[in-house]
Amino acid sequence: MDEPSNVLDVAQVLRSTIDRPEHALHGLMEAVDAGQTKAAASCLRQLPAAIAKLLPSEWIEKNATALERGDYDPLSPLFANSKFVGPDGHFLIVAPWVFRKSRGDVCALAALFGQVIPHHPTPGIAEAVEDMQGAKLRAPVTPVYPIRILSSAGTVKDGWFIVPDAWMWRDSVLGPAFSNISKKSQVLEESGAPAMRRMFDADTAEFLIDLLHGERGVAVTFRSYEIHDAGHASGLGLPRKIHDNLIPGYWYKGVEEWRADGIGFELGSRLFTVEEAAADIAANFYARFGLAGITDGTDGPTEHTPCALLMLDRLLREGHLVAKGERLALRDPTIRGLVRAMEPQRHEVLELTRRELDLVDATSVMRLYGSMSLHPATLVVYESMMRAPTVRYFRPELVS
Ligand SMILES: [Zn+2]
To answer: Which of 81, 104, 343, 346 is the most exposed place for a label (fewest CB within 10 A)?
Structure first.
């Protein structure tokens, strides 16, 4: 069989290999939604043969035992070494997963039955991060698995980015993050493009939308996650920041997100073609500006808000983004213009990352992140030209 030339076998994204998996696993999903660990364990021990044959028996056995004993640590080495994935990419995980919300974390039982889509990880990411920060990595770069969810329940239900550290076993951060590609493409299509048209003038909006059109958007989204997550591995590393509570509250988490985005843009400029780097930036415009406006309207501020504000602030400050009537516009809506527009953020986060690595006392990270400043006008622009128009469009009930 020919190697797929793309980073991702996009045709696989929508192809289904199992007949009605949501029916076959109905009992398990119900038990998980009801938080019944013992019932979930017995469902795992009596999986329909058509599904059991797709999955590694060692994982299923250990996962059932973990549910019965309430001790998930034995899953740790299998997860870190991808031993939970069957030969055709199928996997089933049933365990508590923490859903992080601005109003407090929710930890509850979750079940995820899916399939890893064949993909090509971008080579050389870890080396490129070490080269740019001038120091060895202090945390591993998280692998990102593009997945199709076949059936899910509990806190991961229909999630689009399922982070490894939210699984409740030791060192879960060493395993892969899951990127729910079909859900993400659907959201990009349904929400991203309309949001861009409400914030930006026609030239800028159509330029950004075109960069993420169709199958290209799916592949770009996957690559964006890869390089963004590599950004989290730079500096002191996200696992340490979470473990030692170095970034409490959404401002500090937002600065960390903005830093990871910026390192991602830097990686994009080093590892990708200029067209791919620009498409990655467009995907970030969708995620940070477009979708942040929607979540802000529903669940209070999250780390997306300071991240979007910092990104906007630097674009406005350097004149790469300007106001045109009631909309914002890129000064230079071209591939090279868009890549150039992110250079100030790239330089600033590289400097920030190097300073972070030089800290004698890691708790000073808070002082460092706390010192990031925003021009007061940025808040006004964000509220009036980004958040309000998108909330008005997507959640009219909130503004009536
Ligand atoms: Zn992140």
So the answer is: 104
pLDDT of residue 1: 36
Helix (H) or strand (E) holding 93: strand 90-99
> Measured in angstroms, how far is the CA atom of residue 2 from the centroid of ligand 1?
34
Backbone angles phi, psi at 144, to 5 degrees: -110, 125
Q: Which are the contacts of 188, defined by CB distance < 8 A and separation ≥ 6?
A: 212, 217, 221, 283, 286
pTM reported for the whole predicted model: 0.85
In order of start, what are the domains of the chain with their CATH numbers? 10-119+144-180 (3.30.540), 182-398 (no CATH)
CA–centroid distance, 231 to ligand 1, in Å, is 8
How many separate helices (H) and strands (E) can be counted in the chain?
A: 22, 7
Tell me the CA–centroid distance for residue 45 and ligand 1, in Å. Answer: 36
CA of 179 to the centre of ligand 1 (A): 12
Are 274 and 339 spatial neighbours (Cβ–Cβ below 8 Å)? yes
Instruction: Tell me what pLDDT residue 303 has.
Output: 81
* CA-wise closest residue to 167 among 53, 66, 26, 86: 66
| Residue 303 alpha carbon to ligand 1 centre in Å | 9
**Cα 244 to averaged position of ligand 1 atoms, centre (Å):** 17
pLDDT digit string, tens, across residues 71-84: 999 999 999 999 99
